[in-house]
Amino acid sequence: MCKNKFYKNLFQSLSCFASIMVLVFALLIGFFESLHDGKNFGFILLIIALSLIALFFLIGFYWLFQKVIIDEKGIKIIFINKVLKKYKWEEVEIIEEANIMRNPALRIKLVNGLEIHLDKRKSIIKAIKKYSQKDIVIPEFFK
Predict the structure, then answer these.
(1) pTM, whole model, 2 decimals?
(2) Which residue, 66, 84, 70, is CA-closest to 128?
(3) pLDDT digits (tens, 9 = 90+) for 48-68
């Protein structure tokens, strides 16, 4: 059985979270170093670190929890069980590999000029190959 429901922006979310965690780690090192000083203003670093993590989830909530469903009818993008966008396979012009925000992705170009970007994961590629009649195009600069 082929899974057909995926988190839409998983790779972008993970890479953004990893870069935020590098900064948070540096802030936490500063906090622990400040504990050795007489005047302890290190709690400010701790507040900044926690607020960065909170901002990531507050600002990114809409993008973090979007899902895409790929089935025989087409592609649906949903957010908390509400369909945001729905495209039939007849509307898909081309599916090609791309890099979006330095992450491997699939760019799905539609007849009306819009684009959908999905993470280039084996399970997504498998679902597209199963339900779509289009081949995934590899541009020359990726070869």
Answers:
(1) 0.78
(2) 70
(3) 999 999 999 999 898 889 999
